[in-house]
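Researcher: Please generate the 3D structure of the following complex. Treat every line as part of one assembly.
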Amino acid sequence: MLDFQTQAQATAALWQPRTSRRTSTPKSDERYSTLQELKTLLQYEDHQHNDNQGDLFRRRRLKEGQSALMMGQPFDGLYVVRLGTLKSLITNADGGMHVLSFPMKGNLLGFDGIYKNSYMSDVVALTDCDLIRIPASELFSSQRNNNHLEHMAYWASSREITQEQMAYSLTRSVRSEARVARFLQSMSQRFASLGYSPNRFILPMTRRDIGHHLSVTVETVSRAFSALVQLGIITVYFREINILSHDALCSFDK
Amino acid sequence: MLDFQTQAQATAALWQPRTSRRTSTPKSDERYSTLQELKTLLQYEDHQHNDNQGDLFRRRRLKEGQSALMMGQPFDGLYVVRLGTLKSLITNADGGMHVLSFPMKGNLLGFDGIYKNSYMSDVVALTDCDLIRIPASELFSSQRNNNHLEHMAYWASSREITQEQMAYSLTRSVRSEARVARFLQSMSQRFASLGYSPNRFILPMTRRDIGHHLSVTVETVSRAFSALVQLGIITVYFREINILSHDALCSFDK
DNA sequence: CGCGCGTTTGAACGGGCTCAAACCTTGTGG
DNA sequence: CCACAAGGTTTGAGCCCGTTCAAACGCGCG
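Model: Done. Output below.
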């Protein structure tokens, strides 16, 4: 069906290594980010006066497969994704899991840990990642005048919740193919908002993860991809997705 | 199957009128709540020093069927449920809807409206309700020293998110009967935490609402109820639920 | 190289949806 | 007081879609 060889050659330049090569990342090795970088990442327009501009926030590197947060771990702050992609999931008592979201650059992690002072979901790096930590101590210090920091975190949390709810409702479409179609649209939009191509991208997650996100099995995800390929709407080479017709993809989710 | 007449008589005392009679509520007609009442409702243990105890928060009465919040409406604050039950839902572009939660006494509403300054979901009263409003102006005023108010709201939001995620994952069980069983357990626990009987309660929502919450059809919900009745785990008389064996109900969700 | 994992495809089963009908309750108006 | 309408609930019959089980292939890693 797919000509793997020629496809692979044609798209070799697009392929991102799943593990960092450790040879090409000496350029931004600072270990701290400024408040301004945080605001830019979150796309937070502060109508407030700028204070505490001198604050620095420690970064945290993660290798593919490492846990950013673990369920039950004591809350020690929020994290903003600076680089990479992760998956946020909750595991049921009987082993059944659900992937809540796939956080990427600009997304906020850990806001479910404020209640009960411990995180309520696992977050695992799908690729090498770079996070920025907002310590709990700074967040909630009523002493210093960084009320703005808490407000920004609050605002960003609200956005994450909103988008999670949207994704939630997207899942609810009856047909599984429609769910997959909407998932691809969502990924396309997210890549576009990060400056990448909305038509051509590499999915950072496995079919199994997508299935656990959309509440279908691996096989169903795979079959949905194949169906979309058959209809000429997309092309698929493993994790590389090529959207041929956004209109067709839109009209597909009924 | 069910002997409606005798059942109705036996449980007449339990039945709550869906619309208030307007004859029995002259006792708490104050139109304002204190900060202390808010904290009690939210079960917020403040380790902080108590200030601004003089603040009063305006209440808002809702009749059954009225909207508490509407999607797209400009954000004007958060609300805490003082009395009654509501449903929070998002409506898809194609009319498909999903019920996110059924807020009851002590739950927080509107935290999805902070991002974009407009609410992202509809909230409708299932029974007559009494809400307490936390105005946006007080929430975010960096002038006054009510940082604690914002922190409390933040904390409560985190709790709501957490519980929504839990409910979300509960939905994920494959069998629809297990979803209904878990839903009943969840309602039982909520009623118990409010001081009502965990074994015997009136569901405030329709089968359709339950279906839209669990992502199944009305008929499936009804059939699941019937199946649980057949097994002797519960009895059902319309919206009145009687849990005969919590253990059986627990073991039923696989 | 061989093993494990991710992906794809097929075949058959079964559970939930759709369509349909009946019953009960509640509210409205004659 | 009764007739009627509208909506909530229950149950049945048939069908379709997604799951389950199974097999095959490619890739990356030891």
